[in-house]
């Protein structure tokens, strides 16, 4: 019995009573024998006589199973299966393939074996149906899996007509054609019912939509009438406003014309006064620019005069300080000589034809040729040591670069100045010097000659700038420099002797 009240095919061995609604092999009612007074069972869904269901014996399925005369063969049924039944067969085979041994799965289906049953049925539906149709061992394996794992679901007596038709196809049941036809009619009826329900649902929705649109139309008409009334009212108000604005505009136009005439009269006099004011402004601006230039020139002259006065005062202060230091040193020297006893000239001072070689004398400087004389000279108060830079550095460190020579000599002179307290000035030729000024030369004055000026000339200028009487010591081995500075009263020390003291 199906869920819709109809029964499946009769079981084999049951006598078919003539007239009870049974069908012959070609689908026509049998005419032989007396008819029963009871009506034949009728399918409640399709209105057709119900089919009786024979028992499922599950013979070895074959494609050439015997059929009733006039009924299509199994092969013909496979070739024109309805889509719902074909989909159900794919689902049945997909469920079985997932639990079958790999050896029993046909080669075309092995690549789908790892999918879920639903995905396998969706993607491999045509392949599954083709294997069910063409492979009897695969059909047998599918039936065996369903009998073992889900017994009672895949039988010709199943309530689901698609399952019943699928079971009949797989087992080549004698009533396969009737079950397939019943499944097809059931599917078509279900589709018709679904279409009918969908159509009724659409009718209900359209009815509701029509009622809603009618309400909206009524409301829109009412709003249109109200809007028309408001529009007429606003139109009358706007007409009154336009009339009032027109009157105001005419009045404003007349007033504007009068004002333009007045402005034109005023402008004729104002333009002349404005031109005179602009000319006066330009003249005043020129005078102001001239005064500003004069003031700037005066300010620059005053600044230059102040700078010159400041530099002159600083130079005078330096010279005065050096002179005081020299006088103090001379006084201390006189005191030491007086403390040793004996005043006045000594016998050696009265020898005729000689020149005094006293340090700082006016007759010229003396050479300092050894370390003892150098140490005695470095002990003089207010001594100024002037060093010919490259003459000394190239003598002491010829293998170094000029920059390294300058750095090393300056550091050694700074150490000497800190020990003795003397003033130290070192002069280098500045023609090829592009490096930044030396650092870490505290206590040492580092000078570079200007382009085109020799360091020797700078040394001579330094000696000439010192006040007479101050002890000066020039470190160089250049004979011309030695001769010129000694003529000016400076003492000289060879570069080698100075390097000995620096290294010691």
Automatic annotation (TrEMBL):
Keywords: Coiled coil. Residues 1-74, 271-294 are annotated as: Disordered. Residues 189-230 form a coiled coil. The keyword Coiled coil applies. The keyword Coiled coil applies. This is Putative RNA-binding protein with PIN domain.
């Amino acid at each position: 019995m199906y869920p819709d009240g109809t029964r499946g095919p009769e079981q084999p061995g049951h006598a078919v009573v003539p007239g009870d609604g049974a069908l012959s092999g070609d689908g026509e009612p049998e005419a032989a024998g007396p008819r029963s007074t009871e009506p034949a069972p009728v399918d409640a869904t399709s209105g057709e006589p119900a089919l009786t269901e024979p028992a499922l014996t599950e013979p070895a399925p074959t494609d050439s199973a015997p059929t009733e005369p006039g009924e299509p063969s199994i092969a013909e049924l496979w070739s024109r299966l309805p889509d719902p039944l074909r989909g159900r067969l794919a689902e049945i085979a997909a469920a079985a393939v997932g639990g079958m041994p790999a050896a029993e799965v046909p080669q075309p289906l092995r690549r789908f074996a790892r999918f879920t049953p639903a995905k396998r049925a969706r993607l491999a539906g045509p392949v599954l149906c083709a294997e069910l149709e063409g492979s009897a061992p695969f059909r047998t394996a599918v039936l065996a899996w369903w009998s073992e794992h889900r017994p009672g679901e895949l039988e010709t007596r199943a309530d689901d007509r698609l399952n019943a038709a699928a079971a009949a196809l797989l087992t080549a049941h004698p009533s396969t054609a009737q079950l397939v036809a019943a499944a097809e009619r059931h599917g078509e009826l279900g589709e018709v019912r679904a279409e009918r329900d969908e159509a009724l649902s659409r009718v209900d929705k359209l009815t509701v939509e029509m009622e809603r649109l009618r309400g909206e139309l009524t409301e829109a008409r009412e709003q249109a009438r109200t809007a028309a009334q408001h529009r007429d009212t606003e139109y009358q108000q706007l007409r009154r406003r336009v009339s009032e604005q027109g009157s105001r505009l005419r009045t404003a136009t007349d007033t504007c014309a009068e004002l333009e005439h007045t402005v034109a009269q005023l402008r004729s006099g104002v333009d002349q006064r404005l031109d005179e004011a602009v000319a006066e402004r330009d003249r005043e601006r020129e005078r102001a620019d001239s005064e500003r230039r004069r003031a700037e020139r005066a300010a620059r002259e005053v600044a230059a005069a102040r700078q010159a006065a400041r530099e002159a005062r600083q130079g005078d202060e330096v010279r005065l300080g050096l002179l005081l230091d020299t006088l103090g040193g001379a006084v201390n020297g006189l005191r030491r000589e007086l403390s040793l006893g004996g005043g006045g000239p000594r016998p050696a001072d009265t020898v005729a034809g000689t020149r005094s070689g006293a340090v700082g004398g006016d007759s010229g400087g003396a050479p300092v040729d050894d370390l003892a004389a150098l140490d005695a000279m470095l002990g003089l108060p207010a001594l100024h040591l002037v060093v010919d830079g490259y003459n000394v550095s190239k003598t002491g460190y010829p293998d170094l670069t000029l920059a390294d020579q300058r750095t090393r000599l300056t550091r050694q002179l700074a150490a000497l100045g800190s020990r003795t307290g003397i003033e130290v000035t070192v002069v280098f030729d500045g023609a090829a010097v592009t490096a930044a000024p030396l650092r870490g030369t505290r206590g040492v004055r580092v000078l570079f000659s200007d382009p085109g000026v020799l360091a020797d000339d700078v040394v001579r200028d330094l000696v000439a700038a010192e006040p007479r009487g101050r002890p000066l010591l020039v470190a160089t081995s250049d004979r011309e420099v030695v001769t010129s500075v000694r003529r000016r009263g400076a003492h000289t020390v060879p570069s080698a002797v100075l390097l000995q003291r620096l290294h010691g």
